[in-house]
Design a protein that fits this description.
The chain is of the alpha+beta class and 59 residues long. Helix content is 47%, strand content 14%. The protein is globular.
Length: 59
């Protein structure tokens, strides 16, 4: 989801996590991953994702 949102805004990213694809069907709520973007796009990526992250935190 996060990578799709960033890519829709023209920001390339890489998701890193142990066995991300295999685990996503079993550990969707407890699984952690890292989103990596270039340093030049980091602030914009944060601006784009902040509303989604705040909404998730409220749920």
């Amino acid at each position: 989801m996060w990578s799709g949102i960033l890519e829709e805004h023209g920001i390339r990213c890489v998701l890193k996590g142990a066995n991300l694809r295999a685990a996503m069907y079993y550990f969707t709520y407890s699984m952690t991953c890292q989103i990596h973007v270039s340093a030049s796009q980091a602030e914009r990526a944060k601006e784009i994702l902040t509303p989604f992250l705040e909404a998730d935190a409220r749920e």
